[in-house]
Amino acid sequence: MSSGSVSAPLGESKEALNRERETRHTRDLRQGQELEEQAEAESSEKLIFSESGLGEHFGARFALGLIEACSVNFQVPPNVIRALLSHVETAELGNDWHEAIKSQSSKALQSIRTEMVHEFVRVFKVQVPQEYFYELAQAELSSARYAEAAICIVNSKLFERFDCHELCLNLIDISRTHECKLLLNELESLRRPVIETLSTPKHAKTASKLLLDYKLDPQSFPSLMTIVARNSSIFFINRVLKNED
Fold first, then answer.
1. What are the Cα distances from residue 51, in Å, to 59, 91, 121, 139, 226?
2. Given 11, 82, 150, 204, which is the most exposed site by the fewest CB atoms within 10 A?
3. What is the structure's pLDDT at 241?
4. 9-18, 53-62, 154-163, 216-225: which has the highest mean pLDDT?
5. What is the pTM of this model?
6. For all residues of the chain together, what is the average pLDDT?
């Protein structure tokens, strides 16, 4: 066998080995960089949410300002604010930090989104009277922000002070079935009247869904069953005519 035929495979093996070494080296560098970035992020987080170096209760003040800024920017999803509140609840912010920033927390409360108010009050231990939540829900209703009003009413257990039946209908009209169900989950006596009111051609589908969700007897809603049967018949007839074409 000639020396040329042997050297070619050896050369290829050497090149493959070099490529493997370069790949491994690049991967190690990338992993090292990622570890450094992670350590830097963790270090920054500890610095922000600790008292050392940045003044007493800086972490709490920083978190409060960040939550307030996110709350007034409606491009920030609610889940981001919930995550921040959850982080504040578990972070080590020093002793008596709630009391130390009480005035700032009370002021920031005015900027917090209605659906986040109760969680904010709980995490930051803001002392507010029950009447505050009533006025907040009333303001949302007056501005036709029915979903926000419903969340506030449910969280505050203010059912008796509002017309929850009408609120449910308004929520359905703006396709906020989730918030409607928040009310119905708490008010079992309201389920039947709401479904009966929704037993119209426009809302029959929603009424049927609520009926099934709450496991109510369909025969107790004759008007709804008539509409459903009629719609089913129309659907069947249209399907037959379409197949004939």
1. 7, 12, 23, 39, 67
2. 11
3. 39
4. 154-163
5. 0.70
6. 82
